[in-house]
């Protein structure tokens, strides 16, 4: 039976950006009308995209820089990212119509996925919201897990500081650190987020960095004993302030530099000498280097969630139309928790 | 028999400094006339100082900063550092008159050492110049050894870059890296030092950083494949340039920041984002954290030297009078190799 053509709205990158993205860097296009089928012989699947993930790393893909760990988007083309999707048609024996999958998908209503080895099937019997597969149980969650356990070398009783602490990654790092027996302080950019950290996410303390004139002094106040572990999501002056407050043999896991608009923006440091005198380790990481830990992560974090030991805060925007604002909002801290776009209902 | 009083010239710090030291920050004083004896019941030794070591870390002790890993000197008092000395009198059964020792001693002709547990006896039957016990076999040599093997995680074939490469530490790092099967490039600040690196110290390549307008471009030229290990003795813009040229999973061992005049001088970085995208580890260290490796170091490096596998370049100045200029000269790169002051002949 011949299938009907349907409209397929898409989010397109207009052109490469310099600096922080604005909504008009992205555009909703109506795209070509497509058939909802996976062509015979393609071995692919045709999916309906349900949830799309907004992640800070995507800014890097909007820039004309080809020498990094991930290639840039193509101007005038649909962008891609992590998503949760439902199989609508399949030419691949491993995927059946009606199944849910997660992996890299285009920012559009329907996608033909040919690299099916990059999709992971979601078992929907686990009482976990589908959208969590791009957050708590997706790349951000795994980033938190791998960064904390594999990079930070945590010990019970360690003093742990997390910037952008209510974000997709930070909120899980803090909860894992608490489960590990650490003292945990987070910073965020609104009083609402600070309350969330203290009241819902179980941080010992939290503060609004925008209300602090002197970040070094603020950290000294929250960490009179100094910091053992700094989980850095922002870079720049916060990293510098943390260096001033690290303890001997402190560890800094560098996960993100959301304070930096461009890869080569100048950042000024006054406290680099502490790296020697306090024997600090600063270690950048990508979750993909620890991919062999992924099954263990899924098991552990699913378990914690089901046992009520951790929670997860999402910022859900509705409709593909909301996607440009949602993605751009990450860089001014508009999101409260993990930013997701609901493209369609399940 | 009552011993005579003898003159005891000393080097005194006049007052705390800001910025780079100048010769007049230090002063030769004639000191009190002393008896060349270790008082009964003191358990100490009276030593004649033969060689004094000039080390960059000493600048930190000339500043009024009390929160670091080592306390500052006291103004108007004799300064101290590593030295090689001969026992002239002893109230300690472990040390005999005529023996040679190395450890912390005052910058003066004769010193009464009461903390004898910090002295190490030198076996003089090993064909190694006495002065090497503050260089190749002393703190700088051990810094090179511990930094290279314990911090850099070297592998055969690694591309290794060393700044201040002809200095007390760098020259040994480079030779150890060559013995380890690495490709080794060093930088220094004169063409004479560059020749030394290439012709005497066995580096694969070397360059004069002062002749390079663009350090990033210079490193890209010497490391078209990128840098696996950067052994950093200088910090600042050279560290930033190295970050731009590191390979994925590169390691930076931060040993010194001789480019920095003050602990909190601003340093500007453009390439910090590479720490994430290339998963770079930046690790500060002090040799003292690895002290359990010291016996092994002595055995290994003594062996390499006796087998002719390594050499060591010293810059020897004669007389305590030369001490202020010798120490200060470190910070403008006047020394060629390890800077030592010969206070007296053996």
Tell me about the largest β-sheet of chain A.
7 strands, mixed
Largest protein-protein interface: A-B, 36 and 35 residues
Domains of chain A (count)? 2
Secondary structure: helix percent of chain A: 10-25%
One letter per element, helices H and strands E, the order of chain A comes to EEEEEHEEEEHEHEHEHEHEEHEHEHE
Distance between the termini of chain A: 25 Å
CATH homologous superfamily classification of the largest domain in chain A: Medium-chain alcohol dehydrogenases, catalytic domain
Number of helices of chain A: 9
What is the class of the largest domain in chain A in the CATH system? Alpha Beta
Calculate the mean pLDDT score of chain A and round it: 95
Rough outline of chain A: globular
Identify the quaternary structure here: homodimer
Q: Helix- and strand-based class of chain A?
A: alpha/beta
- Count the E strands of chain A: 18
How would you describe this structure to a colleague?
2 copies of one chain form a homodimer. With 346 residues, the first copy, chain A, is α/β, with parallel strands linked by helices. The first copy, chain A, folds into 2 domains: 5-135 and 312-342, Quinone Oxidoreductase, Chain A, domain 1 (Alpha-Beta Complex); 140-288, Rossmann fold. Chain A is built from 9 helices and 18 strands. In chain A, strands 5, 6, 7, 8, 9, 17 and 18 form a 7-stranded mixed sheet that branches. In chain A, strands 12-11-10-13-14-16 form a 6-stranded parallel sheet, with helices on both faces. In chain A, helix 2 (139-151) packs across helix 8 (294-306). The longest helix of chain A is centred in the middle third of the chain and has 13 residues, at 139-151. The first copy, chain A, starts with a strand and ends with a strand. The mean pLDDT of chain A is 95. The A-B interface holds A 60, 68-69, 235, 239, 248, 254-257, 260, 263-286, 289 and B 68-69, 235, 239, 248, 254-257, 260, 263-286, 289. Strand 16 (281-284) of chain A pairs antiparallel with strand 16 (281-284) of chain B, so a sheet runs across the interface.
């Amino acid at each position: 039976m011949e299938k009907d053509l349907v409209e397929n709205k898409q989010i397109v990158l207009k052109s490469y950006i310099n600096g922080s993205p604005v909504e008009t860097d992205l555009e909703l296009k109506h795209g070509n009308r497509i058939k909802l089928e996976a062509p015979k012989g393609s071995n692919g699947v045709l999916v309906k995209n349900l949830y799309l993930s907004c992640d800070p790393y995507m800014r890097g893909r909007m820039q004309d820089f080809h020498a990094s760990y991930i290639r840039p988007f193509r101007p005038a083309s649909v962008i891609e990212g992590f998503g949760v999707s439902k199989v609508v048609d399949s030419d691949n024996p491993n995927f059946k119509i009606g199944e849910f999958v997660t992996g890299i998908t285009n920012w559009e209503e329907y996608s033909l996925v040919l690299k099916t080895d990059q999709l992971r099937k979601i078992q929907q019997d686990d009482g976990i919201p589908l959208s969590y597969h791009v957050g708590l149980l997706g790349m951000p969650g795994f980033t938190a897990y791998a960064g904390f356990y594999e990079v930070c070398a945590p010990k019970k009783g360690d003093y742990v500081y997390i910037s952008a602490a209510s974000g997709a990654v930070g909120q899980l790092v803090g909860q894992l650190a608490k489960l590990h027996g650490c003292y945990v302080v987070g910073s965020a950019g609104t009083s609402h987020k600070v309350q969330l950290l203290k009241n819902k996410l179980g941080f010992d303390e939290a503060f609004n960095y925008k209300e602090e004139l002197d970040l070094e002094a603020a950290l000294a106040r929250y960490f009179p004993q100094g910091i053992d572990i700094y989980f850095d999501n922002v870079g720049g002056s916060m990293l510098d302030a943390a260096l001033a407050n690290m303890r001997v043999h402190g560890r800094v896991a560098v996960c993100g530099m959301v304070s930096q608009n461009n890869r080569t923006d100048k950042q000024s440091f006054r406290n680099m000498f502490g790296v020697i005198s306090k024997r600090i380790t600063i270690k950048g990481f990508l979750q993909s280097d620890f991919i062999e830990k992924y099954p263990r992560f899924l098991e552990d974090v699913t378990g914690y969630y089901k046992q009520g030991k951790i929670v997860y805060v999402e910022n859900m925007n509705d409709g593909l139309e909301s996607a440009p604002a949602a993605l751009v909002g990450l860089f001014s801290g508009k999101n409260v928790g993990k930013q997701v776009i609901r493209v369609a209902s399940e």
